[in-house]
């Protein structure tokens, strides 16, 4: 059998199986709830932990970003590729750690929210919902188109006499069709088919490696063909940036991945999610590890060839080996690879169409979701969204390719856009709604900035041929998002601290006093005395007439003349004027509060000051009070954070020069 015949047959079989699954599921699709996981009890569901696990692992294994990438990177990274295995398993484990919280949170809704609806509701921000939906949609659309492009190029590498556009068209039509007809349930079933074909591939290829080595000179001879550095963990600067970059991409990404979120939304039981995620982490680790080892050891069979992916070279070698065994290995491998490609493409398509339908089209105000679940019209709309967005993504990638974006560039830009959601998801799971509500602006700005910065870094890096910048675009997106959200958290903490602890009566009194020329403190180092103008003035009582009183002073003054705020008591005032001032005189003069007696002298950090706003201050004679008799300035601001009191002192002392 010729190689072309085997490859085309395997591809056609994959296409036929997936279309058949789409049609079979589509026959039972009565409404939009059967197409998308909008509720827990319809066709669009994940039935059990095994289904959850295989489907989740399938979302992580794409032809473009994993299999082809492994075989391309193995020559540079060698066994360091296993780091991707560890970080991917860790990323899924992070989701498992939060699985209980996610389940509890989404169970509080009357339907299954999308990731963005969840964020929008928890942070109480419609803008955040829409910004998040756009970020996810663009990311998945880009990834979808990349998957198709890589698939067609891969095919062109094997069968050069069939043009790539024809292959792209065939792959697009099939993936649009079966996803639009069968929806989420078809994707879950094809994910299982994908994983079965991947595991067959992973079983066949090692057998072929062993067979090839034993029939071509034995282990020593073939291991000697391996390029240096592949089988050891040698360190270099490039390796370090790879390790950091992959860690940042893989570990936090799954918690903010709409396709993982969809599978959680599609589960009917809590255990399906928790057990499924636990198995996913283990299964992904095993699958990715075998793939990484196959990519490293491929150089026993094919030589390093610049510009050619070693997987293509490997398949050509298998095809040229001849015999039934090699033909079977080639058939199974191509079937597995295209199964991975189609299933990944459909996962991305269904994630985008779910996002756009639920978060953009079915926006609040258009009626309760329940009204739309049975509607044939809504079903048609959601299918149309799916096909339309897929077409747009294909055009988008063609445009980006025309300005020089490579596949790797796109992948990093895509991840860069989505990672900005990660800190928000974690915060939404850890905090309650009232606290999150205060962060709605910061959250929206964080996601938008992370998205723009991720794409901008990738585009600028590409245009200036700075590949480091392209590679770092996800890190930039994540760091910026974390920074802005962190800033929001700090500002909110300060705001709440001020609201809970700062006595605003006093702060307002200080502001008013400053405006009226009071609270301008002069250090008293020279002869000074007070000649009070009493009822001819009484400005202190009219402007800063909100004196703090001690419990003993309060007993005499009586509750009707007092007000309380945050454990402090004051004499009631009317726009800063003390209500105990009658006809220009203090009505409780012999028992007035200590602060009133001390005015205009202040003890600020052990140093004597005088308020320059008092017109009775004279400099002809030294009658300054003893500093020990004046209460510390801080006493006027009970239960106020030290930082705020410090700030007031600085402000009130700062402009001294103008008044001396
Ligand atoms: S502002 Fe000064 S002068 Fe005027 S009443 Fe008060 S203490 Fe006396
Ligand atoms: S208690 Fe008497 S001295 Fe103090 S502010 Fe009021 S009126 Fe003035």
Précis, in short:
Helices cover 67% and strands 5% of the residues. It is mainly α and 660 residues long.
CA(first)-CA(last) distance: 103 Å
Global structural class: mainly alpha
CATH architecture of the largest domain: Up-down Bundle
CATH topology of the largest domain: Sodium/glucose cotransporter
Each distinct ligand = iron/sulfur cluster
| CATH class label of the largest domain | Mainly Alpha
Strand order of the largest sheet: 1-11-10
Instruction: Please indicate the percent range of residues in DSSP E strands (runs of 2 or more).
Output: 5-15%
Number of helices: 25
* Overall number of strands: 12
How would you sum up the global shape?
A: elongated
Radius of gyration: 35 Å
Provide the residue-averaged pLDDT.
85
Q: How would you summarize the topology of this molecule?
A:
Layout: H1 3-26, H2 32-35, H3 49-60, H4 63-77, H5 82-107, H6 115-122, H7 126-158, H8 164-215, H9 218-223, H10 237-253, H11 258-266, H12 270-297, H13 310-321, H14 324-361, H15 376-402, H16 407-419, H17 422-430, H18 433-437, H19 440-463, H20 467-501, H21 504-515, E1 521-523, E2 529-530, H22 539-543, E3 548-549, H23 551-557, E4 562-565, E5 568-571, E6 573-574, E7 577-578, E8 581-582, E9 585-586, H24 594-598, E10 601-604, E11 607-611, E12 617-618, H25 642-654
Antiparallel strand pairs: 1-11, 2-12, 3-5, 4-5, 6-7, 8-9, 10-11
Bound molecules: iron/sulfur cluster (2 copies).
The site of one iron/sulfur cluster has 12 residues, from helix 22.
């Amino acid at each position: 059998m010729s190689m072309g015949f085997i490859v085309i047959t395997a591809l056609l079989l994959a296409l036929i199986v997936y279309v058949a699954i789409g049609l079979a599921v589509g026959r039972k699709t009565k409404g939009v709830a059967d197409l998308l996981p909008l509720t827990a009890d319809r066709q669009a569901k994940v039935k059990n932990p095994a289904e959850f696990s295989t489907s989740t692992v399938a979302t992580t294994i794409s032809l473009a970003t994993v299999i082809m990438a492994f075989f391309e990177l193995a020559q540079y990274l060698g066994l360091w590729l296993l780091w991707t295995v560890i970080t991917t398993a860790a990323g899924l484990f992070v989701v498992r750690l939060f699985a209980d919280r996610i389940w509890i949170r989404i169970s509080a809704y009357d339907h299954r929210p999308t990731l963005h609806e969840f964020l929008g509701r928890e942070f109480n921000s419609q803008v955040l919902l829409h910004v998040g939906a756009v970020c996810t949609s663009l990311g998945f659309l880009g990834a979808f188109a990349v998957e198709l492009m890589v698939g067609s190029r891969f095919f062109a590498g094997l069968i050069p006499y069939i043009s790539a556009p024809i292959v792209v068209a065939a792959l697009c039509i099939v993936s649009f069709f079966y996803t639009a007809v069968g929806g989420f349930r078809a994707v879950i079933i094809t994910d299982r088919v994908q994983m079965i074909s991947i595991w067959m591939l992973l079983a066949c290829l090692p057998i072929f490696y062993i067979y090839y080595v034993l029939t071509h000179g034995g282990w020593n001879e073939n291991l000697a063909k391996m390029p240096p550095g592949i089988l050891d963990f040698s360190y270099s600067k490039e390796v370090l940036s790879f390790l950091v970059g992959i860690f940042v991409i893989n570990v936090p990404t799954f918690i903010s991945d709409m396709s993982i979120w969809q599978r959680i939304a599609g589960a009917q039981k809590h255990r399906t999610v928790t057990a499924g995620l636990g198995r996913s982490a283990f299964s992904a680790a095993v699958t990715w590890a075998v793939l990484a080892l196959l990519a490293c050891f491929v150089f026993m069979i094919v030589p390093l060839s610049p510009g050619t992916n070693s997987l293509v070279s490997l398949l050509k070698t298998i095809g040229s080996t001849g015999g039934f065994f090699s033909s079977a290995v080639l058939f199974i491998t191509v079937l597995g690879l295209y199964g991975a490609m189609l299933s990944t493409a459909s996962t991305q398509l269904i994630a985008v169409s779910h996002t756009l339908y639920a978060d953009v089209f079915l926006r609040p105000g258009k009626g309760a979701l329940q009204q739309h679940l049975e509607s044939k019209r809504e079903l048609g709309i959601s299918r149309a969204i799916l096909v339309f967005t897929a077409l747009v993504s294909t055009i988008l990638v063609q445009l980006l390719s025309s300005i020089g974006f490579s596949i790797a560039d796109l992948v990093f830009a895509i991840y860069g856009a989505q990672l900005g959601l990660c800190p928000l998801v974690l915060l939404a799971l850890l905090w309650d709604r009232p606290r999150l509500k205060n962060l709605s602006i910061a959250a929206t700005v964080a996601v938008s900035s992370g998205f723009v910065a991720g794409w901008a870094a990738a585009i600028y890096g590409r245009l200036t041929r700075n590949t480091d910048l392209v590679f770092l675009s996800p890190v930039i997106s994540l760091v910026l998002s974390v920074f802005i959200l962190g800033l929001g958290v700090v500002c909110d903490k300060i705001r709440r601290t001020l609201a809970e602890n700062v006595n605003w009566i006093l702060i307002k009194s200080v502001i008013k006093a400053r405006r009226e020329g009071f609270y301008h403190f002069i250090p008293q180092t020279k002869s000074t005395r007070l000649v009070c103008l009493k009822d001819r003035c009484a400005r202190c009582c009219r402007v800063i007439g909100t004196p703090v009183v001690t419990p003993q002073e309060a007993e005499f003054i009586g509750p009707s003349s007092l007000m309380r705020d945050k454990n402090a008591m004051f004499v009631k005032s009317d726009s800063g004027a003390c209500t105990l001032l009658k006809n220009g005189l203090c009505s409780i003069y012999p028992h007035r509060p200590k602060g009133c007696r001390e005015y205009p002298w202040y003890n600020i950090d052990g140093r004597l000051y005088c308020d320059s706003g008092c017109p009775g201050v004279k400099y002809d004679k030294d009658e300054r009070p003893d500093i020990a008799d004046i209460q510390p300035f801080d006493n006027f601001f009970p239960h106020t954070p030290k930082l705020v009191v410090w700030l007031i002192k600085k402000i009130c002392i700062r402009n001294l020069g103008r008044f001396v």
